[in-house]
């Protein structure tokens, strides 16, 4: 992996769709996140259906504590990249 805090797709990994080498201060951690082949909501789009908006809101509510942990959590990266 080249660089810190730069998520990359991992199409050949059997379970996880992305990888990132997260760095905060002098701590580094390799984090794999995202379900391979999952249909996520992606970035908000103009004219998006109510179901997709609800799906995005549910993910963010369900994982809010882990997202708040910052760059060293898989939920943070999933929220940033996939949702």
- Pick out the low-confidence regions: none
The proportion of residues forming helix, as a percent range, comes to 25-40%
Average pLDDT taken over every residue: 92
Order of H and E elements: EEEHHH
Principal-axis shape equals globular
Q: What oligomeric state is this? A: single chain
Strand content: 15-25%
SSE class: alpha+beta
Distance between the termini: 23 Å
Largest sheet: 3 strands, antiparallel
Gyration radius (Cα, Å) is 14 Å
Number of helical segments with 4 or more residues: 3
> Which strands sit side by side, in order, in the main sheet?
1-2-3
Total number of strands: 3
* Number of separate structural domains: 1
Task: Please supply descriptive tags for the structure shown above.
83 residues; alpha+beta; three-stranded antiparallel beta sheet; 3 helices; 31% helix; globular
């Amino acid at each position: 992996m080249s660089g810190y805090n730069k998520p990359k797709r991992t199409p050949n990994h059997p379970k996880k769709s992305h990888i990132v080498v997260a760095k905060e201060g002098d701590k580094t951690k390799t984090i794999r996140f995202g379900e391979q082949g999952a249909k996520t909501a992606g970035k908000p789009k103009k004219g998006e259906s109510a179901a997709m908006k609800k799906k995005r809101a549910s993910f963010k509510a369900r994982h809010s504590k882990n997202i708040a942990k910052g760059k060293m959590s898989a939920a943070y990266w999933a929220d940033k990249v996939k949702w």
